[in-house]
Design brief:
By secondary structure, the chain is mainly β. It is built from three helices and 24 strands. The two termini are 19 Å apart.
Length: 388
Amino acid sequence: MAYYSIFPEKDTTLYSHPDRKDMNTGRDEILELVEEKATTGNTYYTSRILIKFKNEEIKDIIENKLESSTFIDSNNTKVSLNLYAGENKSLTQGHIIEAYPLSHSFEEGTQRYSANPPSTTTGSFQAANGATWVYRTESTASAWIVTGFGANTTGSYNTSPGGGTWYTGTDFRAEHSFYADDDLDLDLDVTSIVQKFSASYYQSAAYPTGIPNNGFIIKKPKVTEEDGFGFGELQYFSSNTHTIYPPKLTFKWDDSIYSHSGTTLTSGDIFLTLHNNKATFQRKSKQRFRLTTRKRYPDRAFVTSSNYLDTAYLPTSSYYGLRDATTDEIIIPFDTNYTKLSADNDGMYFDLFMEGLQPERYYKLMFRVDNNDGINIYDEDYYFKVVR
């Protein structure tokens, strides 16, 4: 499989608004980027998202899926941080969202947006049991750094100090820009950042070559956070969502091999079937799917065997895609770089790691063939289920 996704170990939203800066939302179903107006005056207070994926799962992909013991080759592999939009309100037209690697760790906590920390007898908020705008953990000794960041990290915020600390620089930043009437899902290219994690794992490299994986911070640019205007509410599903849209870290690479001595079908009416779909697969398995490909109506010829038994091949510009069977949501798109079909002397094929998919769901396979007739989509209702 040239697409493999892992899901967060933890995530939360940090709020700088005075009424919420001591609030933990580690178990909330929603992550959000929002600017809230002050109770009095015209000051706007922003929020930021923290998210982390397990070191063990990233290492497993590098070592066992990419089959590389030391590094991620950006020429062949891309890594995307994906978040899926929920309800959005009062949005301005243009948006830029950026992600950086955190320079300090955080604890998720177990509270929700609706469970603001109780007040003490003096009226001040008690510390929450996880990350807040002020603290990294439940300990009041774990305040986010607000001064003296050094040359390679930052985290300052003029209106309300706190809100995370992160590494800076071109190789440590990912960006996604869009308009309010666009698709609001986030797709951040974090390849260079995950390469830094890899260098830390395998070469014990330090900044700027390698950094520890403390997770990511997702935020608006500094100029937007401090411009004195609101940009609305951007909401995304968290790892605690009850939907099929949790955040994910997706690794994409080209694992295709194309080598055969048969006939390549470059035009005409093609008949394509999936002949070894078991319909149910264990989540820990890797499955190779085989395609039978031939002309729908073979040429007339005097032969001693059936023309329907001849193995034919699709061109190199052929791809697979995957949808959620219930919602029709695209799980793996027709990606001309990373979902190419392979070919050997037994026919066309592709591999899927079922562990990169959510269990107890049905999925639908589709195929795309670009040939002399143009772009052709094959949707033959091929379904399968991933089970635990």
